[in-house]
Specification:
This protein has 2 domains: about 60 residues, Orthogonal Bundle (Arc Repressor Mutant, subunit A), CATH 1.10.10.10; about 160 residues, Chorismate lyase-like (Chorismate lyase, 3-Layer(aba) Sandwich), CATH 3.40.1410.10. The protein is about 30% helix and about 35% strand. The chain has a 6-stranded antiparallel sheet, with helices on one face. It has a two-stranded antiparallel sheet with strand order 1-2. The protein has a two-stranded parallel sheet with strand order 3-10. Strand 5 and strand 6 form a beta hairpin. It is elongated and about 60 Å long. The relative contact order is 0.12.
Length: about 250
């Protein structure tokens, strides 16, 4: 006797997302017009506000809808746009981000820190650090997410050669091998013009705007790694969730 596997329906927010996306694509919701309000969508689909908001959030991530003050959710594209969204709430979020993307090491060299660079990575001006350059992609062979310079202090030089084959983020690998617990991680995000090297790896023109995310990881012995991650501004969005400490 043959058995038929039960049909599993997609989550409710995905059903609503598919409907809204189809309406945008076929022009039912024209460009530069507002979608129905959350309350109207909740009533139409018989769904909670949380479910509707999740569907709208996915439309925003796909670059089809933008949230505008006073106008609600506005249609800005009839097709999904290439857009990288980085969401962060903890170190675990950064770890998952590394697992869900593909990193390719381009080179491993030594670098002498200038005054400005020393200030950024947390080292001493004139000191020599290990510099790992690489490309992060959405997946192996996929679209480039970022071009990265990772600076690692000389006390960890013996662990650098093994980084190209590690699974997960460099900071976790270095922390494990050096037996140094990460006590603090901080991030700074800024916009800056691309130099020739950054532009080449991101397939842009020198002078185009990049979003640079500087991340520093510190143990009781000092910085364990600092990375500069350049993204194409038009394709980058950063989200962070803060919870009230009760």
């Amino acid at each position: 006797m043959s058995r038929t596997s039960p049909t599993i329906s997609p989550p409710r927010y995905k059903q609503i997302l598919a409907t809204l996306r189809a309406r945008v694509e076929d022009g039912s919701y024209p460009l530069e017009t507002s979608l129905p309000t959350e309350s109207e969508l909740c009533e139409e689909f018989g769904a909670s506000r949380y479910t509707v908001r999740e569907a709208l959030r996915r439309l925003v991530e796909q670059g089809m809808v933008a949230r505008r003050q006073g106008s609600g959710s506005v249609v800005v594209a009839s097709q999904p746009q290439a857009r990288f969204v980085h969401s962060l709430s903890s170190l675990a979020g950064l770890f998952q981000f590394a697992l869900e993307t593909h990193y390719e090491v381009i080179s491993i060299d030594k670098a002498v820190l200038s005054d400005a660079l020393a200030h950024q990575v947390g080292g001493e001006p004139g000191s020599t650090w290990n510099l790992v350059k690489g490309i992060r992609r959405e997946r192996a062979g996929g679209e480039v997410v970022s071009f990265t310079h990772s600076y690692i202090p000389n006390r960890l030089s013996r662990h650098v050669a093994g980084l190209p084959g590690c699974v997960g983020p460099f900071y976790a690998q270095l922390s494990r091998l050096a037996c140094e617990e990460i006590l603090e991680a901080d991030q700074e995000i800024r916009g800056e013009p691309m130099n020739k090297e950054i532009a080449r790896h991101l397939s842009c023109k020198p002078g185009d705007t990049a979003i640079c995310a500087l991340r520093r990881y510190t143990t009781a012995k000092g910085p364990i790694i600092a990375s500069l991650n350049w993204h194409v501004a038009e394709r980058f969005s950063f989200q962070m969730k803060l919870l009230k400490n009760l």
